[in-house]
Write a structure and sequence with these properties.
The protein has about 400 residues and is mostly helical. The chain has 2 domains: about 220 residues, Citrate Synthase, domain 1; about 110 residues, Cytochrome p450-Terp, domain 2. It binds carboxymethyl coenzyme *A. The site of carboxymethyl coenzyme *A has 21 residues, from loops.
């Protein structure tokens, strides 16, 4: 009963007011706090972007120094985390591990669990920014049976992540600056994207007054799905399948399947609820992709060539043109991650570590909003009228 606006998938419902991220889907524009994504991706690093998203302004030199030092202070995780991790099967999906580990942080940091206390939220945000790369790298090392590499605070944020992922205690590891910059750009491009499914999940979860780590764990769980953050993994698997079945020659057959009304096959890394034009992040990602492939001597990488050919064909095909389906960020991010050496099942975990700051900024904004209430959607009830329970023999 009751008259409510019925809007499945929230196609036309604004769930909140926000001053963080602006998207113009028709023009293909993305701005964080007023700054175009192209300028941030070119002139700033990820931690500056985190400062911008969390506090509203890019840091000056002194603020940056202070912010970096606060983050690096928290890069280690409690040693108990290793025992928790050990409970997982070695072949566990990294996102299964991440939902567990991030949620478990709430059991360790009692000074940052009161979501209504701004100081608690702030230290939780710093802890999460600092520890997520450590957790992702630990999840990876665990699945391949290598020793964990402790964080190195003399390295940059992305340099340290590369070190924790790929260094071993046996030999010296030198961070490649091209890969470091590429990874940093992946982090910047994924840092926030207004009210997408995982961000809305974090807001809804946090609106009950749960602790910040639990709310972020809910975001990680939502991001996992192939329609959202899992698309980078799904896109690369799709490219691999097309490659196996004949490569570029096979694109026509694949597109036919996608267009078939009775098939559920989608062109992964294409389409977006908001962008009805080229996703600006996809352009930047394609640029980075070329740089990384060049650096690694992979200019002739068959999957990249396949992706470029697939994009070209799709952008000229009436099915995609009429539906305004363009490449999104995930079309190229998987190829970049793979060239860096990050294994496919870890792609979405990398997305999660980058998006975490956006989730925390959105949580802060929601709780600071005087109109904030627990999120409680209504429904249009379409079930049975009231009826009597019959005794078992009469059912
Ligand atoms: N391949 C083939 N057809 C598609 C695709 C696609 N990737 N995306 C949308 N369509 C079709 C869809 O079938 C529908 O056709 P019709 O009108 O004939 O029924 C039409 O285009 C409109 O699509 P929709 O499903 O109503 O659009 P949506 O806003 O509900 O879905 C989406 C958006 C991103 C879930 C969807 O485009 C999709 O599943 N894309 C593939 C997965 C993907 O790449 N996701 C990453 C999104 S960007 C990163 C992130 O933020 O997570």
């Amino acid at each position: 009963t009751g008259m409510f606006t019925y809007d499945p998938g929230f196609l036309s419902t604004a769930a909140c007011q926000s001053a963080i991220t602006y998207i113009d889907g028709d023009k293909g524009e993305l701005l964080y706090r007023g700054y175009p994504i192209e300028q941030l991706a070119t002139n700033c690093d990820y931690l500056e972007t985190c400062h911008l998203l969390l506090y509203g302004e890019l840091p000056d030199a002194a603020q940056k120094k202070d912010f970096v030092s606060r983050v690096t202070n928290h890069t280690m995780v409690n040693e108990q985390m290793q025992f928790f991790l050990r409970g997982f099967r070695r072949d566990a999906h990294p996102m299964a591990i991440m939902t567990g580990l991030v949620g478990a942080l709430s059991a360790f940091y009692h000074d940052s669990t009161d979501i209504n206390n701004p100081a608690h939220r702030d230290i939780a945000a710093i802890r999460l920014i600092a520890k997520m790369p450590t957790l992702v790298a630990m999840a990876y090392k665990y699945t391949i049976g290598q020793p964990y590499m402790y964080p190195r605070n003399d390295l940059s944020y992305s340099g340290n992540f590369l070190h924790m992922m790929f260094a071993t205690p046996c030999e010296e590891y030198k961070v490649n600056p091209v890969l470091e910059r590429a990874l940093d750009r992946i982090f910047i491009l994924h840092a926030d994207h207004e009210q997408n499914a995982s961000t809305s999940t974090v807001r809804l979860c946090g609106s009950s007054g749960t602790n910040p780590f639990a709310a972020i764990a809910a975001g990680v769980a939502c991001l996992w799905g192939p329609a959202h953050g899992g698309a980078n993994e799904a896109a690369l698997n799709m490219l691999g399948d097309i490659q196996k079945n004949g490569g570029i020659e096979n694109i026509g057959e694949f597109i036919k399947q996608v267009k078939d009304k009775n098939s559920t096959v989608k062109l992964m890394g294409f389409g977006h609820r908001v962008y009805k034009n080229y996703d600006p992040r996809a352009k930047l990602m394609q640029e980075t992709c070329k740089e990384v492939l060049h650096e690694m001597g992979l200019e002739n990488d068959p999957l990249f060539k396949l992706a470029m050919a697939l994009e070209k064909i799709a952008l000229e095909d009436d099915y995609f043109v009429s539906r305004k389906l363009y490449p999104n960020v995930d079309f190229y991010s998987g190829i970049v991650q793979r060239a860096i050496g990050i294994p496919v099942p870890l792609f979405t975990a990398v997305f999660a570590l980058a998006r975490n700051v956006g989730w925390m900024a959105q949580l802060n904004e929601m709780i600071g909003d005087p109109e904030y209430k627990i999120g409680r959607p209504r429904q249009l009830f379409v079930g049975s009228v009231p009826r009597e329970v019959k005794p078992m023999a009469e059912r």
